[in-house]
Design goal:
Arc Repressor Mutant, subunit A, alpha+beta, globular, homodimer, DNA-binding, about 40% helix, two-stranded antiparallel sheet, 8 helices
Amino acid sequence: MFTLAEENYLKAIFHLENDYGTGVSTNAIADKMDTRASSATDMIQKLADKKVISYQKYKGASLTKKGKSIAVNIIRKHRLWEVFLVEKLDFQWDEVHEIAEQLEHIKSDELIQRLDLFLGNPDFDPHGDPIPDKNGYIKPTEKKLLSKLKKNQQGICVGVKESSAKFLQYLDTRKIGIGSSIKVIDKEDFDQSMTIQVSNKQFFITKQISENLYLKTI
Amino acid sequence: MFTLAEENYLKAIFHLENDYGTGVSTNAIADKMDTRASSATDMIQKLADKKVISYQKYKGASLTKKGKSIAVNIIRKHRLWEVFLVEKLDFQWDEVHEIAEQLEHIKSDELIQRLDLFLGNPDFDPHGDPIPDKNGYIKPTEKKLLSKLKKNQQGICVGVKESSAKFLQYLDTRKIGIGSSIKVIDKEDFDQSMTIQVSNKQFFITKQISENLYLKTI
DNA sequence: TTTATTTTTTAGGCTTGTCTAAATTTTAAG
DNA sequence: CTTAAAATTTAGACAAGCCTAAAAAATAAA
């Protein structure tokens, strides 16, 4: 059995490997966990002892098969709870992350199986992230960062990379959500800022925004 | 903010005061928490420092207003989650306690308010225990232990005192549940065992059973 | 009321997960 | 290739919550 802290570290390492490739540095982990490098080292050693990460001093860490499976299961729980909060309890998509951070650690396989069924076996969470199935399989989704699109290309918003309340609220004010159709009207070479069109309205966004929106291109 | 351990101690003290009157001994708390008296003393001192219990060395502890309010809120959450598990996820009444023990510690007032609404503001949990309202008010319910009834008296089962899976499963095999009509056919003075009738069927129960079933007498 | 027993508290230790400060290793720069 | 900087690990401490063993207080018994 794994402690709360261990589970959170595993999840962090999973996300880091996903975003930046295999083999994660101590500093990256410490950063993600909002703690000190020395604390991260301690935990890394503990997780290595438990065979959920492979690790050589000074060389970074990566999840073992077992570690990955634990991490994915936590992510599955997190995303299912988010669906529950939005679909059943009428929370907004920017309100659910913190609560799901707590709910993801509830231990009961039966609970998650029943929750999944109750929710109608959803494929995506409210931010467009895929929900791993009970075997840990994550359906590969082809999606592209808006920042990668060129002038005149368009797509449907299928997810957000960042899911902080602030960013999501920003999107709400612009009426951008999962399913929105987005077209690049103009793109500035210098700073990668863009003018985009979302259902008749055009507006200006910075690189920071376009780098956090996933589209499925048409 | 209170830790998991602190919350569990507060809940334990609340139940003990409820069952055996105000002023709870260190040993009683240690027993309930399945820990050592010395550990209980440590925590009692910590809770006294935080002003959630009043305590004098060697004299036992009792909840302050603040402590009681925290304890009742945890119990409210526990019971609401139990309703969710049974009503929405189709768990049996003997399966929900352990999971609710975890869910009761999720921190979000908004969550509980919405859950309450989603469940239709239920008054009782699946074991017949009243659900405190958001102000901590618990509707006083008149209920009597089956063991207190005399020959020929009858009532409707409105709750169970003990709610272990084993006891609940025993009741299931006898088709006894919340709402069952129960009549005392015979009562043995010597060991308080009884013959009772539940919907046409008569059978024999020991004192251990009758002391854990609450009835509303007719 | 004096002694024996039970209850409760204190003292000292252990583990988890964190920290700061210092040492070590790796990487980058000249 | 040698030094400077950055990254990482080690050493030593601390709070929370638990433990065992021993001391102290309260209660019961003779």
